[in-house]
Amino acid sequence: MLAYYLRLGLRSLRRNPILTTLMVLAIGFGVASSMTTYAVFRAVSGNPLPDKSSQLFAPQIDIWGPQSRTQGLNLPDALSYTDAMALMRARKARRQAAMYPVSYTAIPQDAASEPFAVSGYATYGDFFPMFEVPFIYGGGWDAGQDDAHTSVVVISNQLNRQLFAGANSVGRTVRLDDHDYRVIGVTADWNPRPRFYDLANNDGFTDPPDFFLPFTHAVDLQTETMGNNNCYGSAGRAPGWQGWLQSSCTWVSFWVELPDATAVRAYRDFLQGYEAEQNRAGRFHWPVYYTLLNLTQWMDYEKVVPPETRISLLLSLGFLLVCLVNTVGLMLAKFMRRAAEIGVRRALGASRREIWAQFLMEAAIVGISGGVIGVLFTGIGVLGIGLVFEPDIARLARIDVSLVALTLVCALVATLGAAFYPTWRAARVQPAWQLKSN
Q1: In the prediction, which pLDDT does 236 show?
Q2: Choosing a second label site near 419 at 20 to 30 A (CA), which of 241, 281, 347, 354?
Q3: Is the dihedral of CA 309, 311, 315, 320 positive or negative?
């Protein structure tokens, strides 16, 4: 019977090609607009580390007091050097890493090559296992090298290609500004989107870092941060580098890995005790307040998803709804024009269930056709998404198998939903009235 209904549906759609084309295009345009904006929304709101996101936490400490909170209970999204080093020394987490963005000039060994600017991070050795950084050569450094302030470096695959033509460069020397660093690892092409670990200094969708070097060594060289440096309430601090390190300026991002709920509770207790200790020492003069947000909570707090993507998604869903309303009208007109045919079929013994099946099959054909058109329009939309969104965000949108499948399913389900009322009206046709009037 399904094959029979399929033949009836195709025959009916061929009888009125203009109306059929309008329905298919309405579904195709509506679904394509939704899927195009969804492709962007999916890219910017995805979990960059799904297998560990529930174990990674960013602590915040109330270093400036209640008077600094202009919006609710917001705290600085970075730590001061004093607090970051206190948390590092305490080692209360399974892994912990302080970090800040730095920039140098890379000087190639080939004298014929021009120096060029590179950017990266000063961090601790736990950074690499904590964030599951992949390597193609070598690996990261250990805690002993952190404590020894060693001049080692981990470089990206891109920088390795620029300096060493992609060869295994472990053990070779890289010159950054006026200092030499021994390469101990080369990362694979790794740049989680959004770049969750440094949302205090970027929108999460910038180019990958070129290198990583020990935090302790960067501080020894008095390397200033290339990110934000917020110094609320730090007027009158001591001058120079040491004055900045001892001030209440916040510029250090900090992450910890806590494997289970017991570890999370213990670390919360530690943060509460740390702030209470600072109160007793006279450094803080306000009630203890801190937060400990996991990776996904941190992205929500930092508002990683641009508001224009949410607005565009809502608008596209509204456009899809308008297309479906128009499709309902077109189907209703088409089905009711065949009332005489329905009356004859009912008089010959067809049940209402069979009328339902016939017209839903016809709607399914329209939905699948609209889905195919929607896939084509979605591809065009993704290619042109840079006209609407920032380039760093637009280039994240991708057409893949899951998006194609979702487009087809969405088109089919939406069309069947739109066909529900017209099909119900068609199944309610009274055969006696139609036979008498015709």
Answers
A1: 57
A2: 347
A3: positive
Report CA-CA distances (Å) from 397 to 172, 193, 231: 38, 11, 37
Which residues have C-beta within 8 Å of that of residue 319, sequence separation ≥ 6? 29, 30, 33, 34
Q: Any residues with CB less than 8 A from the CB of 135 and at least 6 apart, and which?
A: 128, 185, 186, 187, 188
- Taking only the tens place, the pLDDT of each residue in 74-106 is 788 899 999 999 999 999 999 999 999 999 999
pLDDT at 294: 94
- By C-alpha distance, which of 313, 236, 391, 384 is closest to 33? 313
Asked whether 215 and 98 are in contact (CB, 8 A), the reply is yes
DSSP state of 318: H
| 176-179 contacts at long range (C-beta below 8 A, 24 or more positions apart) | 176/104, 176/105, 176/106, 176/107, 176/118, 176/211, 176/213, 177/104, 177/105, 177/107, 179/151, 179/221
Give tens-digit pLDDT for 246-295. 998 999 999 999 999 999 999 999 999 999 999 888 888 888 889 999 99
Contact 256, 267 (CB under 8 A): yes
Q: What angle do the packed helices 261-280 and 81-90 form, to 10 degrees? A: 130
Whether residue 41 contacts residue 382, with contact meaning beta carbons closer than 8 Å, is answered with: no
- What are the distances in angstroms from CA 293 to CA 55, 57, 189, 287, 380? 10, 5, 27, 20, 39
Q: Are 292 and 57 in contact (CB under 8 A)?
A: yes
**Sign (positive/negative) of CA torsion 6, 12, 15, 18?**
negative
Backbone φ and ψ for 253, nearest 5 degrees, come out as -80, 150
Rama region for 373: left / alpha / beta (φ>0; ψ in -120 to 50; rest): alpha
Percentage of the chain modeled with pLDDT above 70: 89
Q: Are 118 and 211 in contact (CB under 8 A)?
A: yes
Q: For residue range 319-368, list pLDDT tens digits in order.
A: 888 888 888 888 887 777 766 676 677 676 677 777 777 778 888 888 88
* Structure tokens given for 115: 């120096």
CA-nearest of 65, 61, 57 to 82 is: 61
Cα distance between residue 70 and residue 61, in whole Å:
16
CA distance 234 to 62: 14
What SS3 state is found at 233? coil
Q: What gap in Å lies between CA 222 and CA 238, rounded to an integer?
A: 16
Q: Which residue has the tokens 């801190």?
A: 290
The Cα 130–Cα 296 span in angstroms is 16
- Collect all residues with Cβ–Cβ distance below 8 Å to 259 and sequence separation of at least 6: 55, 94
